Amino acid sequence: MTTASPPSLQASIHIGASSISLLVVEKHPDAAETPGDFLEQSVPLAHDIFQSGSVRRSTIERCVTILNGYRETLRELGATEDTPVRAVATNVLDEALNQDAILNRIQIGCGLHIETLDEGEMTRLIYLKTRRRLRDTPSMKKCTTLVVHVGPGNTRALLFKNGRISDYSNYRMGVYRTGEAILENQDGEDSGASVTKLIREHIRSQVSQIHHDYTEAGIEELVIIGYEIQHLAHELAKPGKTKSSYRALADISSQIASMTEEMRVKNYQLDYNTAQAIIPALEINLAIAETLQVKTLRIPGSDYERGLLLDIPTSFSLTEGFQKEVLRSAESLARKYHVHRSHAAQVTQLSQQLFDATTELHQLDDHDALLLRCAAILHECGNFINARAHHKHSHYLIKNSEIFGLGQRDLGIIALVARYHRRSGPKPNHIDYRDLKSDDRMRVSKLAAILRIADALDRSHSARISKISVRIGKQKLNIDLHGIADASVERMAMRSKASLFQDIYGLGIALHETH
């Protein structure tokens, strides 16, 4: 009789805006993963940051105490040094003046390396949540739906049409950013009505922008997700259901605003941080529903934090569906700036073929391949401003735009790769390039070198080269052009484009007609 292998463990830790949570998952051989112990303790991280710009020392020490307690729990559950533990922190931490001190203190005090979630990964986590909504809310596959995530500092909106992302926006309006701003302007014991009025005044410009962005989209349903609002799902929707209404949201917002914090804690089983934050969360969501005149709301009944922790171990991996959404967003941006679509598509295809064929040279990963494809789609968007020096205009436009699923670091890399698709290659004194970490500077150079070759292969903008084969020689990268009788135009373009590739990879470029 064989003894069944014991389950292995993995754990996720999230240092959030108002709490630190731990989820342990048991991985059984030949069986589905089973969520195990879940722990959560309150900590006023966002309160400190939006009130004073820094996290107080007492809050930092509370974080250390909680995290060491979680590590002890993991040991008691049988975790070892080899147990995978991914620890992440809210991107609100980026706004703390003492961010480095916090992370260093946790590293020394707990032996934990904390990754701060960037905008790109936060969006990926919301995307994973939204995919689950597509499964439990069939109407999302038919209706035009806006998914709204009101976070501690920012609000994100994902527009779905026929179950696919059509648009994405990010707004500087969040629960704690709004709540702390309101506290600064309160005089004594303000009534619930005056507090909600202050909130509405504070968020007016951002809500107006949402109205401008989505009022003509024909939104039929609003899906609301977020840490605070999902605490009230059982009050806003029937058991086992997600459907609610604007009226129900307005009623509960008015009711809670009239309560003291102690009453909110008691009546709705909230901790004190959430009891403070719940009014801004309700009013922001209410204002969005109101400005878009959406009557049908969907509020998931699942626990927000548990779902987040469950997704954290896999959120950075790029699923095919997620990549398609990123590329669709880049293509939408390209249309906005009237990019030559057939040329962009051709350069994107050639870039991918060259990337795949030169893996042993560049040693980059799937995420880098995605950034290259986005840069190829958008490399000529600067023509929207002016054809002269359009590569520099492309850099500016991409850097100051949004692409679904990508953070500022990714956008910066894409912008620079597009910037270097022509004329001068990267130089140490170039703005933005010089500010990158050394690994990212090399990443930009490697990707730009490939993009330049792909761009040269479609110098005529005619997409006449449909298939290439690549052979890596000792001194040259040999590119066979199938079905091409005369590659004079491409060779001419390659003279000015191939130098960066040779500088980076040590190989010249040789084109061979194979008609």
Describe the structure.
Helix 2 (57-76) runs parallel beside helix 3 and helix 12 (320-336) runs parallel beside helix 15. This protein has three domains: 8-116, Nucleotidyltransferase, domain 5 (2-Layer Sandwich), CATH 3.30.420; 119-311, Nucleotidyltransferase, domain 5 (2-Layer Sandwich); 320-514, Hypothetical protein af1432 (Orthogonal Bundle). It starts with 7 loop residues before the first strand and ends with a strand. It has helices at residues 45-52, 57-76, 99-110, 119-136, 175-185, 192-214, 233-236, 246-257, 261-268, 272-291, 304-311, 320-336, 341-357, 359-362, 366-378, 390-399, 408-419, 438-457, 488-497, 499-505, and strands at 8-15, 19-27, 33-42, 85-89, 115-116, 144-150, 155-161, 164-171, 221-225, 243-245, 296-298, 468-472, 476-482, 508-514. The longest helix is centred in the middle third of the chain and has 23 residues, at 192-214. It is 49% helix and 17% strand. It has 20 helices and 14 strands. The strands form three sheets. The protein has a six-stranded mixed β-sheet with strand order 8-7-6-9-11-10, with helices on both faces. A five-stranded mixed β-sheet has the order 3-2-1-4-5, with helices on both faces. The radius of gyration is 26 Å and the shape is globular.
